Amino acid sequence: MTPPQDPQLLEHVRASPLAWYAQSRAQFVGGNAVRLLRGGCELFPALVAAVDRARHEVWFATYIFHDDATAVGVRQALERAAARGVRVRVVVDGFGSLATLPGLLKHLREAGVGVVVYRPIKGWWSWLKPGLLRRLHQKLCVVDGEVAFVGGINVIDDMLDLHHGWCEAPRLDYAVEVRGPVVAPIEQMARAVWTRACFGRDWRDELIGLARSPHRVARARRFLRRIRTTRWAGQERNLADMRPVRAAFVVRDNLRQRRTIERSYIEAIRNARTRVDLVSPYFYPGRAFRRALQQAARRGVRVRLLLQGKLDYRIAGLAARALYEELLAYGVHIYEYMPAFLHAKVALVDDDWATVGSSNIDPLSLLLNLEANVIVRDHRFVAELADEIDKAIAASREVTSGTEPGVPGWLNRLRRGLVAWCAHVYLRVAGATGRY
């Protein structure tokens, strides 16, 4: 007979990072509502409104938290929540937010917001530590365990680029607002990032609470049993008013889920029947990923890649273009987005698989950084994202040759070899192992 479920125990299971780390593949659950958000102009108003409604807690993690007016609006929403007595926890990356850290930390801490820096940069000598190359690249926000935001959008104005200043057109980028069972693993990941940044302090507090239970032995046994057998406690909520969207939250970390995002992409591409559309600003996939794209194109699947036309980092552009000739030879269609900087990390396969998140298709995202994506299995959502991609491709230029005009073939091959060598050295210095 199944023992009665202790509500307090269920709360520990829902909150503990252990429940998330116990999974190693995408876990799809139904009963979700997923809304596509284009750019910060749609994300930040929705996010601020959710934080302003927060009653209990807010978990927030980002790579860049800037100090422009848009970012200040998000920061002030977090401060207002803390002033109401809401527990607010913020994690920012020590490199991505380096330029604004002093002021950001001062404002948030004075307002009572808990804020920590993920792998802070204390000086040039910090880069001598291999672990410093593994950055927090996730963009997550979870409010009261009820609504979450996941995507590729940093906390910075759409028109502002850290290296190029104010731009004439907004970046192309996306996020999703999700409600339903899939919020639980997102919250667990946000808590896990906080735990890692705090060197275990938050996790320690949870274990202390468990140890103080008068029935701690039986409770611990049930706790571990539920971690092994339960997907997400949030599934049992009343979701009658939500669309029955199947979704999964997938991450890349440096513990259990090192290849989960990459594996999800490759499996979807291998099963593609009609189309694959992949959008990524930084594109330098490994051999298995390239082979999946090539085989899909060879069997008649329409494969389209939308990559950067306006380059923010020239080395990243050279890396992607080093692969053009190989991919074009298999019938892969390549487009470069020209109206503005491209920062979106989205993809769709056929008419029932789509993903939105922070992960690029390059070695940094697939082998080093902490990344987070939401995968959606829903025809309406895929159709909406497909319409966005079609519009972006219509404003792009198609690449028809693998070499630049006036550049001899031997130089292109030399560039490709140089890029591959640089990627190999970088990954080894960062401590990545295995083949790519």
From TrEMBL:
GO cellular component entries: plasma membrane
Record-level GO BP terms: cardiolipin biosynthetic process
Main location as per UniProt: membrane
Class of the enzyme per the UniProt entry, highest EC level: transferase
Substrates-to-products reaction catalysed: 2 a 1,2-diacyl-sn-glycero-3-phospho-(1'-sn-glycerol) = a cardiolipin + glycerol
InterPro entries: Cardiolipin_synth_ClsB, PLD-like_dom, PLipase_D/transphosphatidylase
UniProt keyword annotations, A-Z: Cell membrane, Lipid biosynthesis, Lipid metabolism, Membrane, Phospholipid biosynthesis, Phospholipid metabolism, Transferase
Mode of membrane association: Peripheral membrane protein
Annotated localization: Cell membrane
CDD domains: PLDc_CLS_1 (cd09110), PLDc_ybhO_like_2 (cd09159)
Active site positions, chain numbering: 137, 139, 144, 343, 345, 350
EC numbers on record: 2.7.8.-
GO molecular function: cardiolipin synthase activity
PANTHER family assigned to the protein according to its UniProt record, in alphabetical order: CARDIOLIPIN SYNTHASE, PHOSPHOLIPASE D
Function: Catalyzes the phosphatidyl group transfer from one phosphatidylglycerol molecule to another to form cardiolipin (CL) (diphosphatidylglycerol) and glycerol.
Family: Belongs to the phospholipase D family. Cardiolipin synthase subfamily. ClsB sub-subfamily.
NCBIfam families, alphabetized: PRK11263.1
Name of the protein in its database record: Cardiolipin synthase B
Upper taxonomic lineage: Bacteria, Pseudomonadati, Pseudomonadota, Betaproteobacteria, Burkholderiales
Gene assigned in the entry: clsB
